[in-house]
Amino acid sequence: MTQSNFNVKDGQVTSSIFDAEQALDNASQAQFDADKFARYALIGDAMRSQQNQAPCIDITASMADALADEVTYGEQAPQQEPQKVRQEDNVVALSNWRKPLAQVAIAASVSLVAVLGVSNYAPQEQANGDFPVLQSTPVTGSVSPVSLSSEPALESAEKGLRELQQQRIGALVLEHQRQSRMAHALAQQAQEEKEEQEK
Amino acid sequence: MKWLALLLGVGLSAQVVASDIINAKQLLTDMSSAIQERNFDASFVVVKGKGMEPYRWLHGKVEDSELEILSRQNGAGLEVVRVDNKVTYFEPQTQPYSIETDAIAGPIPEILFGEIGSLSNSYDFVLGGKERIADRAAQLVRLVSKDEHKYNYWLWIDIQSALLLKAAYVTQQGEVLEQLQLTHISVTEQPAQPLIELSSKDFPMPLASLAETENTQKLQNNWRIGWLPEGFKLLKSDRHKLDLNNELADYFLFSDGLVEFSVFVQRPLSGQRASGALSSGATTVYVHNSGAFDVSVVGKIPTMTAKAIAESVTRPL
Fold first, then answer.
1. Which residue in chain B has the smallest CA separation from A154?
2. So what family is this one in (chain B) (predicted)?
3. What is the pTM of this model?
4. Which residue in the set B53, B253, B266 is minimally distant from A183, CB to CB?
5. How far apart are CA B72 and CA B57, in angstroms?
């Protein structure tokens, strides 16, 4: 119970330090999670596109280790392969004209191993649990800067636009919203006037 | 024989097209009367890109008066109340005010509550397929713009009750920009309680005259707008101060019945700034820096249209 509480708090503290909502002092540093901090910083940089290079995470070593420890798939494969190799040796020794056939046979057995490998692999992967899914390019999409919703455009507009212009755009959007509320009434009014004139 | 078959074929297809138009229009008319006649309590969301705004919408008839409440459920909030022909807007930071009109100007274009026939100059009514929306069978009706300067508007109408279930602004390329989706609707015999309470409440008097309010001056041909998309008419032009930053602007409001756009002409801000556009959902803001003055166009129109309008504004000779 206390353990889980502590963990949650820990994450919150790291986050609030990072958002500059909490000062970085001795008390908060005690709960400081350096790994998390680094990760948040990386996320932040990626989101703001300040990272010139895409985050490069080297997983070759861990993959090599993982492969080294991997159980060989199925019992059949190791048994089959020596047989095939032996066959091939025999064929070569006996006559050259059977060579192409042997190659076909090897190709077939290799593909069989491959199929076995794949079908064996799928459940193993599940058992192994989660392979980390890397998404090095941040999903930013298009910028939709003006908030039309609750606080009309007081929030930041496009990056790089000056505050004054942001304010102006906010004012324009709000004004358009207010004025267009009258549009329907005005259109009806104009229609009525037109009809009266026609009479 | 071939000739006969061809003639027959042409005749048949023409007939199909004609009945399509009647049906699509008829559906929209049915929808408009259903919205005005029924007692319902609905919730919907408006999705603009990644943003989402939830709303609640109540409508009913108490004795002889038509009552309606539309409120935004997130953020600073907005509440609009309609009692017959008086619509009152409650917003933060502003005094509540009323407008004398028969429809709430919210996320749903007002024209859909009224005489949609007037749209046929600018839009074609096209019947689409049937779909399941909000767990109901719905019929798609498309308002297809007759030129490429406007967005299309698609509506999904409940086959059973003729109520609106979904609507979307769609580009000429078929990309959905902004959509409105009902998440829940209940149609009842009796109007909802908040509506009944409304009829005993007082609301501010409607603004005296729509065209001229305080702090505004009639505009005397100050600017010439060289180009407008087909079908848009000037509803209003004046010079007034903007609410938020107290800046003076020459203002024009245009509408084609379905969508509106505003043109603002202002003193330029200092510094070199490039012209450019921002957008949120279907709404485009185009700011054009023409040197001696700034022209901004705001509305639910494509960026290229807003750009062309803004760049066509000149001083009269």
1. B244
2. Belongs to the RseB family.
3. 0.64
4. B253
5. 9
